[in-house]
Design a protein that fits this description.
212 residues; 58% helix; 0% strand; flat; Carboxymuconolactone decarboxylase family protein; CMD-like; AhpD-like
Length: 212
């Protein structure tokens, strides 16, 4: 379950939110109770973001912006998918893998995104996009000149700006989905203590590690 309350249809007065409730879930469904979009996702991103019509509308405008970008859609999606993977969002990564497939990207290339550094399936420009994405997500915008030079040799300034903005936008969405446990990011915390089995004293374990 998401960490924030989902807004039921009966409480929604904003026309934009109702439009997406109808379009994605169907006009006869209350998506806060009857989960499941036409895209086979739980749909709680929409019902949680409905808490704030202003935030909802701003986010939806962002979706329209990236779909109207001049940047090659496959490069755009490569950045979005890698941002989701790098940030650890199963939802963002999964959704944009599907989008890349719909744009004609080969399954082998999509499967190689997690280990792109050692894959020979990507072009020089695609590798630069992936490296640039890692610089944005992992390194907070610290990007080597050599990576940026490849982008500048292949893309216009407007395209680089779009790539930067869209990738950072999806880094934000990935972060929010994880924090609020939305969609496929409603998962147990994977990092936890592995308890010592009964009958073994912690002191004994420490001594073994020390070589005593």
């Amino acid at each position: 379950m998401p960490r924030l309350r989902e807004v039921p249809r009966a409480e929604v007065t904003d026309e934009k939110i109702l439009f997406f409730y109808d379009r994605l879930f169907g006009p006869d469904k209350d998506p806060a109770v009857d989960h499941g979009t036409i895209h086979a996702t739980p749909g709680d991103w929409w019902t949680v973001f409905a808490q704030s019509p202003d935030v909802f509308r701003h986010a939806v405008r962002g979706f329209a912006l990236y779909r109207n970008a001049k940047l090659d859609p496959q490069l755009r999606e490569l950045g979005q998918a890698r941002a989701g993977y790098a940030r650890g969002s199963q939802f963002v990564f999964s959704q944009h893998c599907k989008q890349m497939r719909s744009l004609g990207m080969a399954d082998e290339k999509i499967a190689a995104i997690p280990h792109w550094q050692v894959s020979d399936l990507f072009s020089l420009l695609e590798r630069a996009v992936l490296a640039y994405t890692d610089g944005l997500v992992h390194d907070g915008g610290r990007v080597p000149d050599e990576v940026f030079a490849v982008l500048q040799a292949e893309l216009s300034d407007a395209e680089i700006l779009e790539l930067t903005y869209i990738t950072c936008m999806y880094d934000m969405h990935a972060t929010m989905c994880r924090a609020l446990k939305l969609e496929f990011d409603d998962r147990p915390e994977p990092i936890e203590e592995v308890r010592v089995p009964e009958g073994i004293e912690v002191a004994d374990l420490s001594a073994d590690l020390a070589g005593d």
